[in-house]
Design goal:
Order of helices and strands: HEEEEHEHEHHEHEHEEHEHEHHHHH
Number of strands: 12
CATH class of the largest domain: Alpha Beta
CATH architecture of the largest domain: 3-Layer(aba) Sandwich
Oligomer: single chain
Low-confidence stretches: none
Distance between the termini: 42 Å
Length: 351
């Protein structure tokens, strides 16, 4: 598919391709929709196989941020950035300062933060070149604990809807990816007595969770077929697809990863199989809430309390999906689009 066809598919407003050879920097910034406010979304550093793969990823992620902000009730639009490269690169200052300079050229239409493959320290380098960055050291910092807490609350909402109780003591949860967010999610789940089954491409991360929380470790490809009640994807997206769906024994899918459905129709297939799906951009909104709180001077307690409201949002969403006979991902899209349309329809007055 051609670039403009991809952009047109979900009506992205702007896509910026960025190149700085001296720093070895190749980046893409995508702004999906700025009706509700400036586009906010993290920067992902990933070793994409092709430029096309990077474009598709950044466009999907940016759209997800628009919907995430809308459902969470935040005055933000959706954007995202990707940097094509090795996430384990050691010399990072020039790479992220180059990125910061390109973010600065957008003059506030896009605000960045950390994401997969990037850190608070990387954002400090970005901050050397632009003010349009959040999640900085000494401010809200790493959003992972708040993202994990919102996801944990979302799992409890799913359990309430599926089992009639949100008590997770003894509930088996398969967590895919135990990096920043996955680790803190395991911490929250273990504190309530959930039984953890975990996997990650990094053996050291797995060992840490096994040692600290008594989790059971499995190989990466085996996580899809384990006998667990809840599947919590917390790594990369597209993990619900034609191949994995055949393996699922789960009753609930509720995790922090973005773009968990490879295709939209997989949401309906989950519903047809009786698997309750917590739409990714609803349940993982805690990180966005955390950086939004930083922009507005909230305390960390207020940000965490707001993330906890994901429980109520999902509770209402599950009921809406049941009443309307919709897959939960379609019900979530309706809520997001309705808010964007309502705010966009408010008449602008001259200031």
């Amino acid at each position: 598919m051609e670039i403009f066809e991809l952009i047109e598919q979900h009506e992205h407003e702007q896509v910026v391709f960025c190149y700085e050879p001296a720093a070895g920097y190749r980046g893409i910034i995508a702004i999906h929709n700025s009706t509700l406010g400036p586009a906010l979304g993290g920067t992902r550093l990933w070793n994409y196989a092709t430029d096309q793969e990077a474009v598709v990823d950044v466009l999907r992620l940016a759209r997800g941020m628009t919907y995430k902000a809308a459902v969470a009730g935040l005055n933000l639009g959706g954007g995202k950035a990707v940097i094509i490269g090795d996430p384990k690169v050691k010399r990072r200052e020039m790479l992220f300062r180059a990125h910061g300079r390109f973010v600065e050229t957008l003059k506030g239409r896009y605000i960045t933060a950390e994401d997969v493959g990037t850190s608070v320290e990387d954002m400090d380098y970005v901050h050397m070149e632009t003010e349009y960055v959040t999640g900085l050291a000494g401010r809200s910092g790493d959003p992972s604990p708040v993202t994990a807490y919102g996801t944990y609350r979302g799992i409890k909402a799913g359990a309430k809807h599926r089992y009639g109780s949100d008590d997770l003591n003894g509930v088996s949860v398969a967590v895919q990816g135990v990096g920043h967010v996955g680790y803190y999610l395991c911490q929250d789940l273990a504190a309530e007595g959930a039984k953890l089954i975990v996997t990650d491409i990094d053996d050291e991360r797995v060992k840490r969770v096994v040692d600290e929380f008594g989790a059971q470790a499995v190989a990466s490809d085996d996580i899809y077929s384990v006998d667990a009640q809840v599947f919590a994807p917390c790594a990369l997206g597209a993990v619900v697809n034609d191949e994995t769906l055949r393996k699922f024994k789960f009753e609930i899918i509720a995790g922090a990863a973005n773009n968990q459905l490879e295709e939209e129709h997989h949401g309906k297939e989950l519903a047809d199989r009786g698997i309750l799906y917590a739409p990714d951009y609803v349940i993982n909104a805690g990180g966005l809430i955390n950086v939004y709180g930083e922009l507005n001077g909230w305390t960390s307690e207020r940000s965490k309390r707001k993330a906890g409201e994901i429980y109520d949002t999902l509770d209402q969403l599950f009921e809406l999906a049941r009443e309307e006979g919709l897959p939960t991902n379609e019900a979530a899209d309706r809520l997001a689009e309705r808010r964007i349309q309502q705010v966009g329809a408010i008449q602008h007055t001259w200031l």
